[in-house]
Design brief:
The protein is mainly α and 225 residues long. It contains eight helices and two strands, in the order H-H-H-H-H-E-E-H-H-H. The chain is globular and about 55 Å long.
Amino acid sequence: MAYDLNTPYDELPLLPPEVEINTKDVLIQCINASRELGELKGAGTMLPDQSILINAIPLQEAKLSSEIENIVTTQDELFFGDLDINAITDPNVKEVFRYRTALRHGYEVLGQGTLNAALIEEVCSVLRAENVRFRTDKSPTVRIVQNYSRKVIYTPPRGGKNLQKKMSNLLDFLNKNDEFDPLIRLAIAHYQFEAIHPFSDGNGRTGRILNILFLIQSNLINIPV
């Protein structure tokens, strides 16, 4: 049966996928990516004060991640904003700094345990500057192409128990599944998180922050850079 773009995808399959994932090509890419991450991790340990990286690089990550959501800022705006956050008036600049704050918050909370539903909600809450929870709606907002056509490209599962079940499955896959290399789990889980679309807004940025937090949890990097 053909998939209907306008119908909530309540039957989004649980993880792990039922297709072959650990193929030769995937494993080769995984090895290459692991090598690059190892070099990044090693470079960070050579600095006498890693807070330099923690202060600077996540702000660039925030800028680039926010641009995907059409939140565009300049380096100058971020530089001056970093000197005096209370003086920021541009809403786009505020959004970028909230991203960095959310990343830092997630990093600090993660040090006390593993990725969980409460942490994900906290990250999104900081991003949106309001208290948020997973969707409970019966008819979620569809994902559309942001152009004049407003073409529907995907409708995520409805909120409520079905969504919570899929998020619980996702976290189990990340935290407990040893069948796949952590980087492969990360790629699969990121796709799944965006397909579940657990929040009414902020899913893209929240998902990209979770990627970094999972790399830290997996000891592939030490700090959120």
